[in-house]
Each structure stands twice: as C-alpha cells, then as structure tokens.
Design a protein that fits this description.
It contains two helices and ten strands, in the order E-E-H-E-E-E-H-E-E-E-E-E. It is an alpha+beta fold. Strands 3-4-5-6-7-8 form a six-stranded mixed sheet.
Length: 174
Amino acid sequence: IAEHGILDDDAPVELLEGWLVRKMTKHPPHTLTSGLVRRALERLLPAGWHVKAQEPITTLESEPEPDVSVVRGDLRDYPDRHPGPQDVALVIEVADSSLQRDRGTKKRVYARAGIPVYWIANLPERCFEVYTQPSGPARRPEYGRQQVYGPEEEIPVVLDGQEIGRLLVRDLLP
C-alpha cells in the first residue's frame, strides 16, 4: 500500500489480519517503557542480533509494527524486505490503552506467524506478560504458555531456545 502511494510511510495504521487498523496513541509512559526495553535488550544481545523499534514485520496476512523486536542479523541484511517470522526471536508490545488489542489480535497474529516469544509490557498492572510455545497456523492461533512477571522478578531473554540473560521488570517500567 505504501509502495503504491495509497498511504504514506507515516500513516498511523498497521495491517493486521488483512485489515488496516489505526495505531493507538502513545503516551509518555508508553514511550519511556519502549525506550527502556530497547536499551536493555541492546546491552544484552550477542553478535548476530539487533533491536528494532516500531518497525514492520511481514507475515502472511499481516504487517504489525511491534514497539520493540529482536531480529536476527544486521540492519543491512534487510535492504529490500522487512524481517519475517523466521528472522524474529522476540516481539514486545507496550500496552496501556492497547491492552485488549495486544492480548487479542496482536497475540493471535504473532502466534499464527510462529514468533517464538511475545512480551506484553502491561503498564496498568505493572507487569510483563510473557507468551511462548506459539501454535503457528491453526484454527485459533494461540501461545501454549503464559507467565506473568511482577516488578521484583526477572524476565529471561531467550534467543533460538537459549537463555542469554535476564531483565529486572522494575528497570523496564516507568
């Protein structure tokens, strides 16, 4: 759509399950949390991985723009395409007013695509929801496991099935 000039690159929409969906407004706590998560992950990642912020991931029927994602390779590995599910180890959505969408449509999109790990930074409840074991394409795509981490707990950061470190939740929240 953007390539054909129907929408410009800055249009406040993303493609979810074949529908153009308006992006939620980002309030200061949302922006702060996104930055804190991005910075913490950048410090932790080994060579061969990089962090993207609010950039598209291309799946079969969607092109979500997660707040933060961890992608295989280098920025220059994607000169003519967005990363696909096979390139993405982790996506993070920061949720305040978007909590229902992030637990519903977004979770379904990521599970269907087989994104291995999905985090929701749940600002209203001051916790992180971590979803693993995606079903992939299924009648009702879902993650098989959910764990909630409170402010005093550490979230394991997992790439290709290996834990590479842990992040303290309170350090990621406003």
